[in-house]
Design goal:
This protein has about 500 residues and is α/β, with parallel strands linked by helices. It folds into two domains: about 280 residues, FAD/NAD(P)-binding domain, CATH 3.50.50; about 150 residues, FAD/NAD(P)-binding domain (3-Layer(bba) Sandwich). Helix content is about 30%, strand content about 20%. The strands form five sheets. Strands 1, 2, 3, 4, 5, 6, 17 and 18 form an eight-stranded mixed beta sheet that branches. The chain has a five-stranded parallel beta sheet with strand order 7-16-8-9-12, covered by helices on one side. Helix 4 links the parallel strand 8 and strand 9. The longest helix is centred in the middle third of the chain and has 23 residues. It is globular and about 70 Å long. The N and C termini lie close together (about 5 Å). Belongs to the FAD-binding monooxygenase family. Keywords: FAD, Flavoprotein, Oxidoreductase.
Length: about 500
């Protein structure tokens, strides 16, 4: 058998999680690693999502690495091009280019029990690694519903994360399916150009004002010249969001005040009481992701826009049909229907010590110890794993906390001389049972909605029910009692064949 390249660590994905892992590995003195990327450039979701109006709904100064502050953000809420540029700069600044392997989608990852390493089949060849870090992210694989007749639609069909830039929307009749975070940015961006815009809304979102503005030259100069001012701004943004957690996770009744703000925001833009009725949710604000926009409601009120408050059920030729019987002829269908979050495709490709896939292991729902490791899958660590998502703050905070855990995990391997660590089933079960007990009183579980936070069984396997500070404490270090140490003969270790 031909020799395969072996590295100590292989990282899957080059978005915030994968690049952050690369930086942390180098800072820990680990240089024997590769970052496997399926595309031909870094950026992850901020590379793939380049639809009109794409921007972040977390303030710029909080949506960046603590070790790579950016005093030059142009706006308080930055757009996709600026975030992607930031990730490119991080790649160059921290010397990650030599570690990148583009066009190297991981097709299969199998744990070799005898050699105690991962065997990887990628689009660019085979390789092995002692430790596998999955940083594929939950918002990486688009979800398009299986709609009868869709395949025979004569016009253009595409998902927001796979925008067809070759299709000219000017003067066209367009249906936007979904009203999530992407859709409320797309709708006002294309509304002025299309002839007719049909917004197919299964469930209305709660929308709050987007407090966005340009960051002036004085602010940029001050943050660059006096870094402490930048840290203070970031700290204040973080603290505000930490205080909000109580309402989301412990006392959903406190969300009523926020709901009144959202209602007032709608009333200012939507004068038609019938349309306002269509757009008013019947669940507690925060149960589904709260959206931020100043131009979504005005776009819906324009004469060339129609909101159909019913789910898409069928496509007949060039006609879209909804559950209430509404039929509209369109030239293009844009799906803003989210991603495979609770059924991540990477789980079908990772095979553990017992010969079954991660998806099979998770048949009753995703679960991981401290959001990072899974019993029966030694030396597999996840960035943004189960129950590490947030409903109100920056995911970069959670990523950096998980990177602390990854760093200590590698130190434990070095210190103990173990070939691998395997999470104990009891530890994984105990961690997740405690999470689910806490989840019951959160707004995500008790707010009266069905969201992408919940899996097919109604179990919340995505969101963290606490503060980011609490998660950082929980992932500060590996607890050896939660793991079994695995060893193999020295002659077998790292053979890479």
């Amino acid at each position: 058998m031909a020799e395969r390249e072996h590295t100590r660590v292989a990282v899957i994905g080059s978005g915030f999680g994968g690049l952050g892992a690369g930086v942390r590995l180098r800072r820990e003195g680990v240089t024997d690693f590769v970052i496997l990327e399926r595309a031909d450039a870094v950026g992850g979701t901020w590379r793939d999502n380049d639809y009109p109006g794409c921007a972040c709904d977390v303030p710029s100064h909080l949506y960046s690495f603590s070790f790579a502050p950016n005093a030059a953000w142009p706006r308080t809420f930055s757009g996709q091009p600026h975030i992607r540029d930031y990730l490119e700069r991080v790649t160059d600044t921290f010397g990650l280019r030599p570690h990148l392997r583009f066009n190297s989608e991981v097709l299969r990852a199998r744990w070799n029990r005898e050699a105690a390493h991962w065997e990887l089949l990628t689009a660019s060849g085979e390789r092995t690694a002692d430790v596998l870090i999955s940083a594929t992210g939950p918002l990486s694989d688009p979800k398009v519903p299986d709609i009868p007749g869709l395949r025979d639609f004569p016009g253009r069909v595409f998902h927001s994360a796979r925008w067809d830039h070759g299709f000219e929307l000017d003067g066209k009749r367009v249906a936007v399916v979904g009203t999530g975070a992407s859709a409320i940015q797309i709708v006002p961006s294309i509304q002025p150009w299309v002839r007719r815009l049909t917004v197919v809304q299964r469930t209305p979102p709660w929308v709050l004002p987007r407090m966005d503005r340009g960051i002036n030259a004085v602010e940029k100069w001050l943050h660059h010249t006096v870094p402490a001012t930048h840290r203070a701004r970031r700290g204040l943004l973080w603290l505000i969001r930490e205080f909000q957690v109580g309402a989301f996770a412990k006392r959903p009744q406190l969300m009523k005040a926020t709901e009144q703000l959202a209602r007032a925001h709608m009333r200012r833009a939507i004068r038609d009481p019938l349309l306002r009725s269509k757009l008013t949710p019947d669940y507690t604000i925060g149960c589904k992701r709260i959206l931020l926009s100043n131009d979504y409601y005005p776009a819906l009120a324009r004469p060339n826009t129609e909101v159909v408050a019913s789910a898409l059920t069928e496509v007949r030729g060039s006609t879209v049909v909804t559950a209430d019987g509404t039929e509209r002829e369109v030239d293009a269908i844009v799906f803003g229907t989210g991603f495979h979050v609770t059924d991540m495709p990477i789980a079908d490709r990772v095979i553990g010590a017992e010969g079954r896939t991660l998806a099979e292991h998770w048949k009753d729902g995703m679960a991981a110890l401290r959001g990072s490791t899974v019993d029966g899958f030694p030396n597999l660590l996840m960035i943004i794993g189960p129950n590490t998502g947030l409903g109100n703050s920056s995911m970069i905070l959670m990523i950096e906390s998980t990177l602390n855990y990854v760093a200590d995990y590698l130190r434990v391997l070095d210190r103990t001389g173990a070939a691998a660590l395997d999470a104990r089933p009891r530890a994984v079960r105990s961690w997740n049972e405690a999470l689910q007990r806490r989840m019951g009183r959160t707004v995500w579980n008790s707010g009266g909605c069905v969201s992408w936070y919940l899996d097919s069984a109604g179990r919340n396997t995505t969101v963290w029910p606490g503060t980011t500070a609490e998660f950082r404490r929980a992932t500060r270090q590996v607890r050896l009692a939660e793991y079994e140490l695995l060893r193999v003969p020295t002659a077998t270790k790292g053979a890479g064949v």
